[in-house]
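Work Package 4 report. The design task specified in the project plan requires that, given a folded chain encoded as C-alpha cells, an amino acid be chosen for each position. We show below one input record used in the internal validation round.
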C-alpha cells in the first residue's frame, strides 16, 4: 500500500561523516614508544575502510602524567595523522580511569562499596561520582581538551567517559542521597516513612540524617529505600555526566556528546540519562554460536538494538562490538565466517548508523590482550578477521542512502528499569526464576519472527503511536500508567498483560483492593487472587476452549500460575486442566472501548506464546513484510526516510534460506546494484538489503 506520510530522514550523526560510521576504540597512547606502529595503523585503517577512530578513552595518564603537567603533543599528532588520512575522530573524555597520582593524593575519588570498604587504586570505572575534587578535575580536563581540539577538523563528537556504571557509598554520596530524598519527600520524614513502610521491624527514621544507603551490613529489606537508592544512583551518575558535558559544551555547543551505554545493564536507567545526550550508543557483545537456538540470540540482540533506537527515536550508534571474539565470557567462541558482517548489518537494520569496534589493535599486555581486534598481534592485514572487516568496510560504503533513515514501529514492548528493580527486589513467589528481561525478550521474539517493527519502551513513554503493546510482568505501576494504558486500549489498541501485573505503586507499596491494582481490573476484566509458583521440573496443563481468537489445543504452564477470576463480559480463552485451580482461566480477553486487553495468567513456553501472538497480530491487522512464515532464524527489518524504504533480510542460520517478500513491490538490491525479484536466496549467515521506493508494507494506527 502507498505510504502517503513523508518520513523525513534525520541528519547524519556528524555532518563531517555523512556515511555509516565504521571505526572503533583506538589507543595510540599504548604505543607511543613504537611510532612505526602508529604509522602502520593509518595504512591498515584505510585498507579496512575505517572512517572513524574513538581516541583517548582511557588516556588520562598520557594526558596528565603528573598533577598539572600536561602532554598533548601525542594527541595533536594522532589527530593530525588521522585527519591527513581521511579518518575522523570521536574524542573521549578520560574520566573512565584515573592515574595513580590522583588516587594517592586525593583518595576521596576512590569508590566506597556497599559493604563500606574503600577501593585501592586500580581497575577502572570506579570513581566516586559525587567527589567534589573529581568533578572539578574532570571539568578542568574536559575543558582543556575542548579548548584545544573543538576546532580540529578531525574531531566530530565527544565520547564521554566509558560505560558509566556501579555505585559509590562514601560519605559524600550518603549526604547527596539524603539531600535528594529531602527534595523528593518535601523534607518530611514522616512522608518518607510512610512511603517506605518503615513501620516494619521498627525501622522508621526520626530524621534524614539517620538514612544510609542499602548495605549487606545494614538495611537491605526496605524496598522503598532500595528503589530510591537505584533512582539516586542514576540521578547522581547523570549529574556527574552533566558536569562533563558542561565543560565541553561551554567551549563549543555544536559538537554532539555521546556515552556508551551497556544494553540492558540493570544498574543505571538509560531513560533518565539520554535527555542530556545528543546521541545514544551502546556496546554489543552477544554470545553468537552458543548452544541456544541461533534465533534466540539474534532476537535478543535485536531487542537491545530496538531499545537503543527507542531511547531517542532516532538513529543510534553501535559504539562497540568485537570483530571476532571477546575475552571475558566463560567460553569465547570465534564469530563464524559471515557472522561479523551479518551482526553488523543487523545493527544497521534496527537503526544504528555506525559499526564500531572494541578494539582496533590488540594490546601487548594486560587483560584485554586476547580480546578480538581488527589488527591482531601478527600486525598485518592477511588475517581472516581483518579481511572480513575490510569486506564489511566496502559494503558500508554502499549504504550512504540509509544514513538518517528510521524505523516506523507498529508494536512496542514495555521493558522498564524501575519495574525491573522492583521485581528483582521482591521476595516471594519464585526468587530464582523471575526472569523479567528474558520474559520481555520472549514476547518481543514473536514480533521479530514476523518482521514487525517494534519499539522497546518504558512505562513513561507515549503509547499512542502503536497498534499493539505488550507489557509482560508490569509489576510496578507509576502514577498515570494505568490510565494511559486504558486510554490506549479504549482508542483501539491491543494490549497484552501477564501474571505479576499491577502489584505495587512507584514506591513498592502494594495496591489495596485486589490485583492488578490502580484500576487495571476494569481494563483486564479480571481479578488476580493468588500466585502459585512451580518447581523447575513441574508444569500445569491447560487447554483452549472455543474462543474468538480461534486458538485450539492444549499447552503447558510453568513457573508462574496465577489464579484469576474473570469479571462479567471477560472472555476466557483457555483454562487450567490440573491442580485445585482446574477450570480457572489462564488466558482472557476483555473488550474495552474500541480495543482489547489480553491477560496471560501463566508463563508458557515460547511456542505457545508465539502461536498466541500469531493470532493477535492477524486479528489486529498488523502488516508483515512477507506473507510466508519466515524460516526459523530469519527476520526482516525495515528503515524508512525521504520516500525510500530499505528492507533488511537477515539469515542467522548456518544454512541457505529462501524468502519471499511482499510481491507488490519492486525491489532493488543495493549490494549487487540491480533489480531483484521478491524471492531471494541467502547463503548461511547471509543478508540482503533491498530498496523500494515510496511504498510501504505498513498501515499506520489511526490517530
Ligand atoms: C567494554 C569496554 C571496553 C572493553 C570491552 C571488552 O565494552 O567499554 O573498554 O573493555 O568491554 O569487551
Ligand atoms: Zn562517593
Amino acid at each position: 500500500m502507498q505510504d502517503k506520510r513523508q518520513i523525513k530522514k534525520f541528519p547524519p550523526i556528524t555532518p563531517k561523516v555523512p556515511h555509516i560510521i565504521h571505526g572503533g576504540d583506538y589507543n595510540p597512547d599504548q604505543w607511543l614508544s613504537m611510532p612505526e606502529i602508529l604509522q602502520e595503523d593509518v595504512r591498515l585503517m584505510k585498507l579496512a575502510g575505517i572512517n572513524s577512530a574513538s581516541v583517548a578513552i582511557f588516556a588520562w595518564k598520557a594526558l596528565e602524567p603528573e598533577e598539572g603537567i600536561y602532554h598533548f603533543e601525542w594527541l595533536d599528532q594522532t589527530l593530525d595523522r588521522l585527519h591527513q588520512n581521511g579518518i575522523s575522530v570521536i574524542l573521549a573524555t578520560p574520566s573512565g580511569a584515573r592515574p595513580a597520582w590522583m588516587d594517592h593524593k586525593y583518595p576521596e575519588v576512590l569508590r566506597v562499596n556497599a559493604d563500606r570498604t574503600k577501593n585501592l587504586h586500580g581497575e577502572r570505572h570506579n570513581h566516586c561520582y559525587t567527589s567534589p575534587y573529581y568533578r572539578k578535575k574532570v571539568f578542568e580536563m574536559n575543558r582543556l581538551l575542548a579548548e584545544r581540539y573543538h576546532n580540529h577538523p578531525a574531531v566530530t563528537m565527544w565520547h564521554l567517559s566509558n560505560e558509566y556504571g556501579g555505585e559509590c557509598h562514601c560519605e559524600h554520596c550518603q549526604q547527596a542521597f539524603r539531600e535528594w530524598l529531602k527534595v523528593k519527600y518535601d523534607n518530611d520524614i514522616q512522608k518518607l516513612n510512610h512511603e517506605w513502610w518503615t513501620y516494619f521491624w521498627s525501622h522508621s527514621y526520626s530524621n534524614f540524617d539517620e538514612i544510609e544507603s542499602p548495605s549487606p551490613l545494614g538495611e537491605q529489606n526496605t524496598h522503598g529505600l532500595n528503589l530510591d537508592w537505584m533512582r539516586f544512583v542514576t540521578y547522581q551518575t547523570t549529574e556527574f555526566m552533566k558536569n562533563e558535558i558542561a565543560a565541553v559544551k561551554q567551549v563549543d555547543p555544536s559538537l554532539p556528546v555521546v556515552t556508551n551505554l551497556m544494553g540492558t545493564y540493570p544498574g543505571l536507567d538509560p531513560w533518565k540519562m539520554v535527555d542530556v545526550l545528543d546521541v545514544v550508543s551502546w556496546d554489543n557483545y552477544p554470545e553468537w554460536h552458543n548452544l541456544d537456538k541461533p534465533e534466540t540470540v539474534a532476537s535478543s540482540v535485536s531487542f537491545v538494538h530496538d531499545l537503543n533506537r527507542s531511547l531517542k527515536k532516532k538513529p543510534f550508534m553501535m559504539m562497540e562490538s568485537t570483530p571476532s571474539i571477546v575475552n571475558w565470557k566463560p567460553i569465547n567462541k570465534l564469530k563464524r565466517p559471515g557472522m561479523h558482517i551479518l551482526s553488523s548489518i543487523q545493527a544497521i537494520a534496527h537503526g544504528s548508523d555506525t559499526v564500531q569496534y572494541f578494539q582496533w589493535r590488540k594490546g601487548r599486555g594486560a587483560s584485554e590482550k586476547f580480546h578480538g581486534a581488527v589488527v591482531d598481534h601478527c600486525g598485518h592485514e592477511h588475517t581472516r578477521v581483518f579481511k572480513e572487516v575490510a569486506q564489511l568496510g566496502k559494503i558500508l560504503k554502499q549504504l550512504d542512502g540509509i544514513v538518517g533513515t528510521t524505523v516506523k514501529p507498529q508494536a512496542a514492548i514495555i521493558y522498564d528499569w524501575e519495574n525491573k528493580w522492583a521485581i528483582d527486589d521482591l521476595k516471594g513467589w519464585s526468587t530464582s526464576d523471575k526472569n523479567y528481561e528474558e520474559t520481555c525478550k520472549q514476547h518481543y521474539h514473536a514480533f521479530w519472527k514476523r518482521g514487525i517493527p517494534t519499539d522497546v519502551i518504558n512505562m513513561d513513554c507515549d503509547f499512542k503511536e502503536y497498534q499493539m503493546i505488550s507489557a509482560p510482568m508490569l509489576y510496578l505501576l507509576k502514577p498515570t500508567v494505568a490510565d494511559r494504558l486504558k486510554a490506549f486500549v479504549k482508542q483501539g489498541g491491543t494490549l497484552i498483560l501477564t501474571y505479576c501485573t499491577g502489584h505495587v505503586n512507584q514506591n513498592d507499596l502494594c495496591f489495596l483492593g485486589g490485583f492488578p491494582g490502580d484500576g487495571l481490573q476494569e481494563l483486564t476484566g479480571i481479578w488476580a487472587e493468588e500466585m502459585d509458583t512451580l518447581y523447575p521440573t513441574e508444569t500445569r496443563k491447560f487447554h483452549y476452549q472455543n474462543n474468538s481468537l480461534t486458538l485450539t489445543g492444549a499447552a503447558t504452564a510453568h513457573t508462574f500460575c496465577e489464579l484469576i477470576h474473570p469479571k462479567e463480559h471477560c472472555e476466557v480463552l483457555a483454562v487450567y486442566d490440573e491442580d485445585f485451580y482446574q477450570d480457572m482461566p489462564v488466558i482472557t480477553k476483555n473488550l474495552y472501548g474500541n480495543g482489547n486487553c489480553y491477560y496471560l495468567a501463566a508463563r508458557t513456553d515460547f511456542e505457545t506464546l508465539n502461536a498466541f501472538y500469531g493470532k493477535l497480530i492477524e486479528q489486529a491487522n498488523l502488516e508483515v513484510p512477507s506473507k510466508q512464515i519466515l524460516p526459523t532464524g530469519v527476520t526482516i527489518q525495515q528503515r524508512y526516510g525521504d520516500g525510500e524504504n530499505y528492507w533488511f533480510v537477515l539469515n542467522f542460520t548456518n544454512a541457505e534460506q529462501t524468502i519471499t517478500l511482499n510481491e507488490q513491490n519492486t525491489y532493488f538490491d543495493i549490494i549487487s546494484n540491480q533489480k531483484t525479484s521478491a524471492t531471494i536466496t541467502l547463503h548461511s549467515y547471509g543478508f540482503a538489503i533491498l530498496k523500494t521506493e515510496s511504498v510501504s508494507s505498513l498501515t499506520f494506527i489511526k490517530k
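The two ends are 18 Å apart (CA to CA). Validation will be extended to a larger panel in the next phase.
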